[in-house]
Amino acid sequence: MENTLESKSSSSNFIKNIVVEDLKSGHVQEVVTRFPPEPNGYLHIGHAKSICLNFELADEFKGRTNLRFDDTNPLKEDTEYVESIQEDVRWLGFEWDELRFASDYFEEIYNRAVLLIKKGKAYVCDLTAEEMREYRGTLTEPGKESPYRSRSVEENLDLFARMRAGEFKDGERVLRAKIDMASPNITLRDPVLYRIAHTHHHRTGDAWCIYPMYDYAHPLSDAIEGITHSICTLEFEDHRPLYDWTIAECEMEATPRQYEFARLNVTNTVMSKRKLKQLVDEAVVDGWDDPRMPTISGLRRKGYTPEAMRAFCREIGVSKSNSLVDERNLEHFIREDLKLKALRTMAVLRPLKVVITNYPEGQSELLPAENNAENEAMGTREIPFSRELYIEQDDFMENPPSKYFRLFPGNEVRLKNAYFITCQEAIKDADGNVIELRCTYDPKTKSGTGFSERKVKGTIHWVDASQAVAADFRLFEPLITNEAEEEGKPFLECINPNSLEVLQGFVEPNMKEAAGGDKFQFFRHGYFNVDPKDTTAEKLAFNRIVSLKSSFDPSKA
Ligand code: ATP
Ligand code: MG
Predict the structure, then answer these.
(1) Is-contact 142 185, C-beta < 8 A?
(2) Ligand 1 contact via 264 beta carbon (within 6 Å)
(3) Quick one: pLDDT band at residue 2, thresholds 50, 70, 90?
(4) Per-residue confidence at 551, pLDDT binned at 50, 70, 90?
(5) Which runs of E-coded beta strand occur in 127-237?
(6) Cβ count within 10 A of residue 251
(7) Does ligand 1 have an atom closer than 6 angstroms to the CB of 272?
(8) Where is the Glutamyl/glutaminyl-tRNA synthetase class Ib catalytic domain (predicted)?
(9) For this structure, is 263 an active site residue?
(10) Model confidence over 48-93: pLDDT tens digits?
(11) Which residue among 76, 144, 203, 263 is the active-site one?
């Protein structure tokens, strides 16, 4: 079956227009992009947008894309993240041309800093971080020049070499670009290029105790790799002049250009790695891949598919202004993707036992059922039926309001794929809770036999009690809602206490063999994924990906 989810050709956007122009004018011969994560956390859905943009742009014009780790801040980085990021990019469906690390270029980046010093474009500064902040000025006032700005080239070369050699403590000195302390663009007020950090690096070990800053290392890394279009998010717009300054003053052969697009933000979704890490570190969630996390690994474990995620990223497009995307957009695409693919079966999440008093004891039968009413090719299966069943607790009410068409004493309903049953009696425990229903069935009403004498208004689902398979069902709500966060409370006090609900119920017996990652539509409950971590030989665990229906239409949003 053809997957129509992604078949529409990707629409135009301003970055693509630039690429088209650049190819036409001969400014570039081949499009080369990169995805440059910092390995300080797991990737989230915002990163997915950047990944799709970079890889699909190069793909469309037969170019190349590198995966480059921006590993210039060893304090926060870890190989666990390096590995998870590669796994997530591959899972999303992309293969990089080259795997690179900014740390591969440390020697060259250092040599270019020496060049800047020799050209009188960089100097070693001894101001403390505090003093540097004071000297920097504000948006309305120019900065003040550092007293160390006029150091001689020789002194700067000597001090910088000794910084590298480890003669100074963390924070004692930095290397700064000599640009313009009065620039209206604060980024250009002699930005720091190198800082001292006596820290073990996950790749270079203890070879270095000075590390280049992002704004300096990034353009050089791009140039070294021959990146043509360096795509980043809007907050780097002000940094673009520094990007260009670095490329020019460091006399790089290649001249990559930076383009900025709006960050993806999704309603009721935390999108900062710092906060996500806090949720993991404080054990609010079960790791980075907790199904409630907006990480790629969390969404995967919840049950999202790469197809749905890519279709979502395409649909929301690439823009120049920040906005908040409705989370229902994402949900729309997983429903669309699974609609014709997922086996539709019955699961009872909050079980109530039903005994069919006129069904012979010890007898059972197999009833045919369609696997997907909208996709005949998925065929049929047989489900067992016998004297004892489970239905949902809320499919019975002792004193129903009008318009309640499900079970109540004396009422008749249709059991999906089976017979009509009539409720005769509700059995209660000592506290008055209904614990079992006694019903009768009408053998003439077997599903598919064309019986039409009586009309019933309600259809409910069920599973056979003697053969059903026990399962856990996990239902989710947002970890943090936009309303909760806006109150200005500390982040961890905004956690939704109802973000996870675990129910113990039953699924049809043919699901015994279901494996981690298998996806199903449960009649009336929505789409579920078999949790790959918590499913054991003894018990299945299902994550609800999304409920069945929504009136939300992304094309009209
Ligand atoms: P965070 O602020 O969540 O920690 P980051 O920007 O620091 O994210 P990086 O690892 O530096 O994370 O990001 C790698 C790439 O992904 C960058 O090019 C960045 O611009 C992009 N990116 C990060 N978050 C988003 C987002 N929400 N939407 C689109 N692109 C994003
Ligand atoms: Mg970053």
Answers:
(1) no
(2) yes
(3) very low
(4) low
(5) 174-177, 192-196, 210-212, 229-233
(6) 11
(7) yes
(8) 30-339
(9) yes
(10) 999 999 999 999 999 999 999 999 999 999 999 999 999 999 999 9
(11) 263
37 lines ligand 1 (CB under 6 A): yes
Cα–ligand 2 centroid distance for 288 (angstroms): 18
Instruction: Report pLDDT for 12.
Output: 83
Dump pLDDT digits (tens) for 31-45. Answer: 999 999 999 999 999
Domains of the chain: residue spans and CATH: 11-103+216-334 (3.40.50.620), 107-215 (3.90.800.10), 343-549 (2.40.240.10)
Of 482 and 496, more confident: 496
pTM, 2 dp: 0.94
What six digits make up the tokens of 77? 């980085």
Tell me the two tokens of residue 209.
Answer: 């105790």
- Ligand 1 center to residue 39 CA distance, Å? 11
**Ligand nearest to the Cα of 273, by number:** 1
Mutate which of 42, 50, 231 to test ligand 1's pocket (most atoms within 8 Å of Cβ)? Answer: 50
Q: State the Rg of the chain over Cα.
A: 31
Please choose, from the candidates 320, 329, 334, 314, the residue with its C-alpha nearest in 3D space to the C-alpha of residue 59: 314
CA distance between the termini of the chain: 29
Q: Which is catalytic among the residues 100, 112, 173, 273?
A: 273
**Would the CB of 49 count as within 6 Å of ligand 1?**
yes
Question: Ligand 1 test: best mutation among 47, 222, 261, most atoms within 8 Å of CB?
Answer: 47
Using CA atoms, how far apart are residues 27 and 18, in angstroms rounded to an integer?
11
- 232 C-beta closer than 6 A to ligand 1: yes
Closest ligand to Cα 263: 1
Phi–psi pair at 62, nearest 5 degrees: 55, 40
Q: Could you confirm whether 6 is annotated as catalytic?
A: no
The b-or-e profile of 275-295 (16+ CB within 10 A means b, else e) is bbeebbeeebbbebbbbbbbb
